[in-house]
Amino acid sequence: MAARLLILALVWFAARSAGAQAPQELEGRPITEIRFLGAASGQEDVRSVVELRPGDPLNLAEVRRTVKLLFHLGIFGQVRAFAEPGPRGVVLTFELLGVRRVRSLEFFGNSVFSDAELRRWIRLSPGEEFDRLRLSEAATEIEKRYARRGFRRAQVIAREEGSASEDVRVKLFVQEGPPTRVSRVFIRGDARFPTPRLLEVMEYVPGQVLDEGWLSAALERLRRFYHRQGYLEARVSAPRIDAGLQAMWEVVAVDISAGEILRIDFSGNHVLSARQLRAALPLDRELRLDGATLAELEEIVRDLYLRQGYAQVRVAAELEERRPGRTRRLLFRVQEGPRVRVERLDFFGNRSIPSRELVLIIEDTLAEELPQPLLGQAVDPGDMDVFGGPQPRRGQARRPDRPEGFWFELVPERVYLPEAYQKGLERIADLYRSRGFLTARAGPAQLVWQKNPSRLHVAIPVEEGPQTLIGALAFEGNESIDASDLLRLAESEAAAVRPGGPFDPNALENLRRRLLKNYADRGFAFANIESRVQFSADRQLADVTLAVQEGPRIEVRRILLSGNRRTARVVFDRSLALRRGGRYTPQRVSQSTDNLLSLGIFSGTDIRLLDPDRAEEQKDVLVFVRERPAHNLTLIPGISSAEGVRIEIGYTRLNLFGRALELATRLRVNRPVFYPLMPPGLEERYQDMSFVEGLEGFALAGLHWPRAWWLGPNAGVRLDVAAVQEHAASFDLTRFSLTPGLDLHLSSGVDLTLQFDLERIGFDCTVANQSCGAAAGDRWNRYDQGSLFLAGFRPEIVWDRRDNPFRPRRGTLLSFRPEIDKSLSSSREAFFTRLDFLASVYFPLARDVTLAISLRGGAILQLVSGSKTPSHKLFFLGGRNSVRGFREDALIPADLSPPCIEIPGSENQTECISPGGNAYMNAKIELRFPLVPGRLEAAVFSDGGNLWTDPGHLDPFEIRPTAGFGLRWVTPVGPVAFDFGFNLDPDSARREDTWNLHFNIGEF
Fold first, then answer.
1. Taking the mean position of all CA atoms in its chain, how far away is CA 566?
2. Distance (Å, rounded) from C-alpha 122 to C-alpha 3?
3. 516 phi and psi, to 5 degrees?
4. Bridge partners for 172 per DSSP
5. 767 phi-psi bin (left φ>0, alpha ψ -120 to 50, beta other)
6. What whole-number distance in Å separates Cα of residue 808 and Cα of residue 842?
7. Could you tell me the pLDDT band of residue 43, with boundaries at 50, 70 and 90?
């Protein structure tokens, strides 16, 4: 790449005739003709970049700029310019060499490393721009990796295939050669252990390959071995391996200096055990017990005691002299002293900021430095105001008192930790500076010990110094925006910059950035603002001047595309918020980037000004995209005793016809062949079927258009087709569905989906003596006997204001889905509407503690007499997503009598299976809190709900209650939940369980 950029950085002006003149001699002559040679030379966008026209005088600086602009289009690998004299002036020629990309990357001859490993180490991949320098570097890098693995004679030969105008097939041929092996491991120095024992620790095998990775791991194992034996000062090393030495066998020398056994003891420690103190010391590294190291170890032990409240602790490390052959002792003498409680924390010298505010800064810093378990975290009463506290809500947070003695031996606010105090004092100084006290200082802390040595009074002096106020705020150079508008912007923030207010350098810098953003939002991308401050002699006043250099207001002249090898320009015209002749603003650039990425056909986009260093009123905008691979094919064969021979094929075609259409298909087919292993009765059924009749599986196909511009700027359309055929011992199922849909993004957080369903279902359960429909008890078999042709219209509107859809802590989620369905079969009457709603709210209570509340409900209303809801459209409750404590979909409707049904073919035997209902209610409340922050959470919950077969029987007070607790393992895509739910009022007549364990990915 470096070589190519060097070539491109040079602009060649050479006369083609033998007696041609130098380029400098041609400068100023009129251009009679402009020619383009090479790739894409006929494209209008390419020609339009060149602003030189026949008749213009030749300007070398302008030609260099044109070459730069052509190269920045991203579609040329090299750009050259030539000038030659003509009869009436100069002929200017631009030679354009297209970008060659890597079409494929193949490896041959590699067995030590896999293809995937080699791909990770080189900077070449299919679809990227081809570069010979990168190819050479890739071959060199692979040879280095082989040498480190022990194959020093490995050679890599790189080949490129393809003409100068074609994409390149890259082939890397690896000749691994014989490896260099270890003939002997020679232990040198003071080892203290026999060589065979050390070789065993190193996991050395005679004749093994000399792998640098193995040697490094072997030396580390030796170090750990010596440390476990008490040789904490042991030194283990090996001379650097010369990978360039072409030896077949090599002796590896290992230098060991074991030293003496070092025993670490502690005396005077009563609060912390020797084991706790030893665990805090960095004994896993090589120790050099000099004065600096001993001081560091003393400070580690001292810090442990300080964090426990022992502010007067003294630690001294004593190291015995080295005596050959004897154990050496490192003794830490600890004088713990009493556990100190800070009785008072006072500030003096502060006049502008009350002491309580300063004390809170110190206490907050201590709470950060001394984290407490969950039981030690305070819940501020103000956080509970939403549950019936005083109105209006209290504005200022309060810190509740936490009793010491039972759960808390000493709360962080009463611990004297010098490190935390120093950090808090720095924050206090920053606070003063933000209020205009530019020379303010706080500290150092003065310790006043009481008669009782376990009680401490901390006094902190404050030197405020003079307060600097803003005397005047002026603007210069603002021609497009009135000074009054800029002044309103300056005073709109909480940390306002206004005359008479305190002078805060940070607030002034933030104001400068906000003004720059305001100018950029108005199209002034080249605006620059400089702040100047003039202090009075006593530094009590500061006159602030903001000098504005607006520059031109940029208008988009042209939009140039790069990287769109398959995507039609109309896709960009409909997706970009930037328009020719419109303003160039960061918001429009950001919106354009989001729109392009939402199409799903680009892995990255970059929108920038062409020639960004030149300020002009009209600028070209370059839109660079990286297209995703158009085709994705997966093939998964398999075989099992239940399914027989199976094959699954998935194919995705992105950017169909260059219009950002996505075609996604998936086919899975299996044919049982192991008839003797089948249940009784099923073997005969399969043998009586033809080959096609016996096939099972499913087929899915979807055509998705994420941005249907002809329906609006935020509209997407889709069409999905699905077909299923399945045979089992108890049923035969065939199902076909056609689902067109329209997705509309109405506003921030509000989405509307319009979907039409057309499905044909055939279900036969007469092959076995069992219940059909909802009473089957298996959600996958929950269909009615016979055939059904059903059409449905299902809109849904969602208002999502959650801060995180996977792990919400605050916000609201509302959804409403009315559905109307009608049977198109003459044999079955079904015409009904299905209403379903959801409301969830989330309240952050304390640090990482969230209260989640959810309410769901729905009803199915028949629109004609004689209509009956198909079983697969009924509501079901129970399980991980509704009422925990019940088995999945096992809650039996409240108005069902008798609650249990008779098992077909049996006498006086019943089973309790929910047949579903036409109305339901479900309420959930859950408190979530951390156990290991960021990794493991816990929750306590209470659920309630019920089903009714007749919507007229719905009673919101007839709720089945459950409660329980659970654990959540936090992952990047949401928590993995394990919940124990308990039925608080189990009904013996319905044979309900007392408790159930639930597993779920995600939470409501």
1. 29
2. 18
3. -60, -40
4. 107, 158
5. alpha
6. 7
7. low
Contact predicate 318/330, CB 8 Å: yes
Q: Do residues 552 and 528 make contact, with C-beta atoms less than 8 angstroms apart?
A: no
Categorise residue 892: left if φ over 0, alpha if ψ from -120 to 50, beta otherwise: beta
Reference 195, options 260, 248, 249, 252; nearest CA is: 252
How many angstroms separate the CA atoms of 800 and 396, rounded? Answer: 29
Amino acid symbol at 937? E
Distant-in-sequence, close-in-space partners of 488: CB < 8 Å, separation ≥ 6 = none
226 C-beta neighbours (distance < 10 Å), count = 26
Asked if 39 and 76 touch (Cβ cutoff 8 Å), the reply is yes
What is the CA 289 to chain-centroid distance, rounded?
Answer: 44
Q: Which residues pair with 168 in a beta bridge?
A: 102
Kindly state the tokens that stand for 17: 């005739």
The pLDDT tens digits for 347-405 are 999 999 999 999 999 999 998 888 765 554 555 444 444 444 443 444 444 444 444 54
Structural tokens at position 56: 């213009």
469-522 confidence digits (pLDDT tens): 999 989 998 888 888 888 888 877 756 788 888 999 998 999 999 999 999 999
Q: Report d(CA 647, CA 650) in Å as an integer.
A: 10
- b or e along 201-217 (b: 16 or more beta carbons within 10 Å of the residue's beta carbon)? ebebeeeeebbeebbee
Q: Where are the beta strands (DSSP E) in 312-389?
A: 314-319, 328-335, 341-348
Task: State which H helix or E strand residue 23 sits in.
Answer: helix 23-26
Euclidean distance between CA atoms 378 and 413, whole angstroms: 12
DSSP state of 129: B
Contacts (Cβ under 8 Å, ≥6 apart) of 494: none
CA atoms within 13 A on the CB side of 765: 17
DSSP lists the bridge partners of residue 734 as 725, 762
Query: Cα–Cα distances in Å, from 820 out to 756, 791, 793?
Result: 10, 8, 5
Three-state secondary structure call for residue 614: coil
> Does the model's pTM come out above 0.90?
no
HSE at residue 190, side-chain half, CA atoms within 13 A, is 11
Distance CA 338, CA 67 (A): 78
Q: Using CA atoms, how far apart are residues 708 and 982, in angstroms rounded to an integer?
A: 49
Cα(542)–Cα(555) distance, integer angstroms: 38
List of residues 6+ apart from 244 with CB closer than 8 A: 147, 152
Q: Which residue has the tokens 């052509």?
A: 70
Q: What is the pLDDT of residue 578?
A: 93
How many distinct helices (H) and strands (E) make up the chain?
17, 40
pLDDT tens column, 732-744: 888 999 999 999 9
Distance between CA atoms of residues 546 and 476, nearest Å? 6
Q: Give the other-Cβ count within 10 Å of 343's Cβ.
A: 14
Q: How far apart are CA 501 and CA 514, in angstroms?
A: 18
Give the β-pairing of 31-38 and 90-98: parallel
Q: Mention every residue, 6+ apart, whose C-beta is less than 8 A from residue 240.
A: none
Is 162 in contact with 97 (CB distance < 8 Å)?
A: no
Is residue 971 a contact partner of residue 937, using CB atoms and an 8 Å limit?
no
* Structure confidence at residue 409 (pLDDT): 58
Residue from 322, 275, 328, 277 nearest 303 by CA: 277
The torsion defined by the Cα of 305, 309, 310 and 316, in degrees rounded to 10, comes to 20
Write the DSSP assignment of 719-734 as a string of letters: EEEEEEEEE-SS-EEE
What pLDDT, on the 0 to 100 scale, is given for residue 378? 52
3-state secondary structure 223-290: HHHHHHCCCCCCEEECCCCCCCCCCCEEEEEEEEECCCCEEEEEECCCCCCHHHHHHHCCCCCCCCCC
Determine the Cα–Cα distance for residues 984 and 383; give it in Å rounded to an integer. Answer: 30
* pLDDT at residue 970 is higher than 70: yes
Q: Which of 892, 893, 922, 865 is nearest to 992 (CA)?
A: 892
